[in-house]
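Z., the sequence and structure:
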Amino acid sequence: MLNPSRDVLLLDGDCGLCHRLARFMDPRLVPGADIAYRPIQSEEAQGLISTLPEWQQRAATVYLFRDGHSYVRSAAVIRCLFYMRWHWRVWFPLLWMIPLPIRDLVYRLVSRYRHLVFERPEVCTFRID
């Protein structure tokens, strides 16, 4: 069971790109960063998603729960930079300046074709603690 005060990144457990994101982030986290990864398909994740407004529940996307706020799609992915070491965090303001509709358009294109480029893992391999 997740601690309610803990930040959580919900990723598609059947997506090779999502697995790569979690495995890329993990060794690059700032010491003391307290972020949990969960597959969207898990009961814990579904419980968190059910607390969101309906439009976010239907997003079928990457979700980040941070400091009592929820972020979806490109906002969630870009905010993951906050957990990483400084040389990754410097990218945040540059990426955040891109208008949201453009960021989410790119996110949706990547999301649509991710299974063609990244092989689906047989089992969920990102850290779950």
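The chain has a mean pLDDT of 88. The two ends are 9 Å apart (CA to CA).

Let me know what you think.
H.
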